[in-house]
Every structure is written in structure tokens, then in C-alpha cells.
Amino acid sequence: MSGTTNPYQNDRGNKDASITRKGGEGDMVPSPGTGQAMNTANAFLIGDTMTGGYGNGPDILHDCTIAVNPGEIAVIVGPNGAGKSTAMKAVFGMLNVRQGSVRLDGEDITNLTPQARVAKGMGFVPQTSNIFASLTVEENLEMGAFIRKGDIQDTMDQVYTLFPILKEKRHQAAGELSGGQRQQVAVGRALMTKPKVLMLDEPTAGVSPIVMDELFDRIIEVSRTGIPILMVEQNARQALEIADKGYVLVQGRNAHTGTGKDLLADAQVRRSFLGG
Amino acid sequence: MDFLNAIVVLMNFVIIPATAYGAQLALGALGVTLIYGILRFSNFAHGDTMAFGAMVTILFTWAFQAAGVSLGPLPTALLALPLGIVVTGALLVGTDRLVYRFYRQQKAKPVIFVIASLGVMFIMNGIVRFIIGVDDQRFADGERFIISARTFRDLTGLDEGLAFRTTQGLTIVVALIAVVLLFWFLGRTRTGKSMRAFSDNEDLALLSGINPERVVLITWLIVAALATTAGVLYGLDKSFKPFTYFQLLLPIFAAAIVGGLGNPIGAILGGFVIAFSEVGITYAFRRVVGYLLPEDMQPEGLLQLLSTDYKFAVSFGILLLVLLFKPTGIMKGKSV
């Protein structure tokens, strides 16, 4: 390696082994790091360097890391097909993770089924069909608390305080509500398990901008109760504005990571994903 | 007076029999619709499940009769019914463990379940014929009439008699109790709600921690209760013959589909629609009309739209019309 490539290490003409070492310099290069502090060692919920795909199909995620801490809102953004929802499903156990691990509160849950993860305290709101359309709002919430023993009235009251409109419509079939109200039912249902972490897959998909703002407000309120929230979002700009931590994924890899503000300020992120 | 006579004839030959028959169909259709809503396939073995339940109940009834146990004016079969339900429940749960669970684990398509249920149907059919034979069995005892035609005539002084048989009254009352219990269970209890949730959105039910195997187990038990009750009531009202139960499959499915598959209220509604159509279309209205029209305008024919031999054509016709024009049924169930 020495001599031919790096002129500074060319010891041609100097054959005195006492001055230059035979074989040239050592080839260890000190690493400068990524320049992006992730602080994932103690993360409350972390999908750590996950590689995997659906079934036996090709890998969609490549060494992808997603983490969230209590009191935080972490947002996964990225272009279409970047594997945003896939990353979240991997954390929730709906994907074959072939490498890496998922840990909740320090416990390795990589091998648990989604149902078992719910029992461990993960609340998940899928993107579509996330409510029981033919059941009333109240029954939806009751079913959310199905795994809990004992009184659920307190939690239900909390959900009603958080989403007052649901209390008003609690005897109405959930399928008859508007898009934004359905999403509130979906989030409420997930909150009924008293989750330690809440995962939302595109909660604002298909709702109007006004409703979207309201939903974001509600999500911030939920986060203020101390529940860590991991969220996938299409509306990258608004999502990053409320995010404590943002993950930009590209083709199943972590492309940029930082606080929401940092990412919004980052020239490259702006140019690539936020339209300037 | 003639007008009253016409009403009595209509009650006696159309409304009362059709109501009783409708209640039996409704109970049958409820079973079919529950299985469709929760296990997501059309259970062709349902008619023979009813036959099996009725057969077990008949055997217990005979045992009670031999032992001299009776319910006085009520049929002894009522006492044997719970035992019949238990045995039928065991059979259905056993069948599920043996047959359907395998296909559930394979995540088989509904059509495969349907064909499997066809196989189950033939086996159940065979079991019933093997144990009790193919002939008519009568097992009704106790008081035959709540009001007999003669008592009614004496009581009212009308020309026409109105007979209200115990089995008809019993059918309506028992069906009503069964339906109220079912709706209370589905609407008020946690387990019932979890069944509706499972039927509505299977994936989300899983995420909510609802155990599908438990839901399936309870569904089969409820279906056993409904099918046995329907089978026994039908047997009491008419007579028990294994082949007629197989034939009941058509009106029962017609009722479930007309009402909207997967919708319990629809199943009940559908049961009565089919029953009233079947009885109304095959009844000769000559006597009813005869009382209403003046002497010189008496009808010459029977005023019967279809001979009773063709009663199954009525179910078929309604089924075709519904599938052509409103495949989700009256109450917006799932389309077939």
C-alpha cells in the first residue's frame, strides 16, 4: 500500500531502515464519527440497525435505526417508497427483521409478535382500517382496552377530555364519523391500553389541512402527557415542525437525523424533501 | 261478519303458520349469518347441524318420556333442548378443531371453507341417518292446542275456526327469547362486543388483544344453541325427517342473504320475508276472497299463484332477485 498511492508515504531512495519503517505507515484511520449524535443507547423504544423485508422478499430496510424517548415526538419522513411505514412496521413486529434488534425499555422484543408487543405497552394506530366501523365510539374505546383487567372508566374519561368530540358522539357508529374524527377514535382506541409508547402511521392521511392542524395539536397534547410518540408522516414540513427528533429515510436507509428544527434548517434536506 | 271470517281464515292459514315458520328460519339464518360474519364462510353444514341437534334432543326426549318425566302441557323436548345444545356444541367445536382450524391456520380462501363445510355436511347427514334413520319421527307431546278451531268457533260464533297450536306459540316465544338473549350478548357483554369487533376488523381486533380462537369457539357454541333450537322447533311444529333439514338450507340461506349476510337483524327480517313469501305465494286464497266478494262475483279458480310443491322456487326466486339487484341485502350486509 505504501509508496505507490500516497506520495507522502513514498520512501523511494531512502533505504535506511533506521529512518523509515519498512512497509510504511500503519493503515489505521481514526474515524471522525457520523457527525450526527443519535443517543440511542438508552432510548426508550429503538429499532436498532434493522435490516429486513416482508416475508421472504427482498430487504426493504437497510441498517435503519429509529428511536424515541419519553416526552418526545419522533417523526419519520422521506420520499414515497422510502420505507417510512415499513420502518414503523418493523419496530412493531409486522416485518421480518433479519438483522438488528428492537428494544423497548431496555428489553429485547425483536422476537415478539405484534399482539405480544401490545401487551408489553406499545400502542399502534395503523394507517387504514384503524377503527371498528360498525361499533360505536364508546365500544371502540372499550375494545381498545380489551387486554386490560379492571376499571377502564378513568382512561376513557382521559380520552374524552383529550378528544371532546368523541364524548359527544360516543353512541354513534364510528364508521359514520368524518375522517378527522375517525382518526381521533383510532388514536383514542390505541390510548385505551395505557401504552408506554404510541406509534402512529400517517395519522393525517386523507384529511383536510384544517383537520390536519387540529390533529397535530391533539398529538402534541398526547405527547405532553409523557407518552413517547413515533409517527410516520407524509406532510414532512408540518410534522418536522412539531418533532423533537426527525428521521429522514431514503431507500430504507437513514439519510438524515436530527431535531425537527435542524432538519428544517438543513439545506440538503430542504432541497431534497421539502421543496426548497 | 264475512270480513271477520276472511281475516280468521287468513290468520289461520297464512299469518300464524308463516310467523312460526319465519321464526324457525330466522333462528337458522342467525346461525348462518354469525358464521359468515366471524368465520367468513357460508356454512353448508348448517341444515344438518340443525338435524343433528334435533336428533340428539329427540333421543333425550324419548329417554325422558320413558322415565316418565314431563313438563305437563309443554312438550318434553323443551326439557331435552339444553342437553341437545350441549352435545351439538361439542360436535361443532370438535369439527372446528378437526377441520376448520387447519384451514384457518393455512389462511385458506373462503371458497375452500365452503367446500370443506360441504364435506362436513355429508358426514353429519350420514351420522344423523345412521343413528335415527331416514323416516319421520314424531316427538311432540303435551297439550296440542292453545286454541283449537272448535273452541274458537264456539267462543266467537264465527263460521271459520282459528287454530293456534302449542308448537306455534312455543316457536314464537322461544325464538323471541333466543333473539333477545343473542342481541343482549352481542351488544352488552364484553365477549359479545369482541365478537362484533372481530367480525368488523380482524387485524385491529388482533392488535387490541382479542384472541381469535376464543371468538371462534364462542361463535360455534352460540351457533350450536341457535341451530339446535331452530331444529327442535321446526321438528315440533312439523315433524322430524333428516332430509327436510337438508332442504331447509335453501330458505335459510335465502333468508340470511336477503337480510344481508353477517347482519343479525337482517337475518331475522330475511327469515320472515322468506316465510311469508313462501306461505303467501303457495296458499290458495279462494276462501279469503270468497268471504270478501259478493255472491255473484265468487272466484272460480283456487287463486293460488304456485302449487305448494314449488315452494322452494319461491326462496330461489327471491334469492336470485336479491343477488341481481341488491347483493348486500336489505340491511347492508357483506355482498356474497
Q: Summarize this, please?
A:
The complex is a heterodimer of chains A (276) and B (336). Chain A has 276 residues and is α/β, with parallel strands linked by helices.
Topology:
The complex is a heterodimer of chains A (276) and B (336).
Chain A: E1 45-53, E2 61-68, E3 73-77, H1 84-92, E4 96-104, E5 107-108, H2 114-120, E6 122-125, H3 137-144, H4 153-162, H5 164-168, H6 179-191, E7 197-201, H7 209-224, E8 229-232, H8 236-242, E9 245-250, E10 253-258, H9 260-265, H10 267-273
Parallel strand pairs in A: 3-8, 3-9, 6-7, 7-8
Antiparallel strand pairs in A: 1-2, 1-4, 4-5, 9-10
Helix pairs in contact in A: 3-6
Chain B: H1 2-38, H2 46-67, H3 77-105, H4 110-132, E1 145-147, H5 149-156, E2 164-165, H6 166-188, H7 190-200, H8 202-207, H9 212-237, H10 242-259, H11 264-282, H12 286-292, H13 311-325
Antiparallel strand pairs in B: 1-2
Helix pairs in contact in B: 1-6, 1-9, 1-10, 1-11, 1-12, 2-3, 2-4, 2-9, 2-10, 3-4, 3-9, 6-7, 6-9, 7-9, 10-11, 10-13, 11-13
Description of the structure:
The complex is a heterodimer of chains A (276) and B (336). Helices cover 32% and strands 21% of the residues of chain A. With 276 residues, chain A is of the alpha/beta class. Chain A has a domain at 36-114 and 229-276: Rossmann fold (3-Layer(aba) Sandwich). Chain A has a 6-stranded mixed β-sheet, with helices on both faces. In chain A, a hairpin with a 7-residue loop joins strand 1 (45-53) and strand 2. In chain A, helix 3 (137-144) runs parallel beside helix 6 (179-191). Chain A is elongated. The model of chain A has no long low-confidence stretch (mean pLDDT 86). Chain B is mainly alpha-helical and 336 residues long. Chain B has one domain (2-325): Orthogonal Bundle (ABC transporter involved in vitamin B12 uptake, BtuC), CATH 1.10.3470. In chain B, 73% of the residues lie in helices and 1% in strands. Chain B contains 13 helices and 2 strands. In chain B, strands 1-2 form a two-stranded antiparallel sheet. In chain B, helix 1 (2-38) packs parallel to helix 6, helix 3 runs antiparallel to helix 9 (212-237) and helix 6 packs across helix 7. Classes of the chains: A alpha/beta (276), B mainly alpha (336). Chain A binds chain B through residues 114-115, 118-119, 124, 126, 129-135, 139, 142-144, 146-147, 189, 193, and chain B through 190, 193-194, 196-197, 199-201, 203-210.
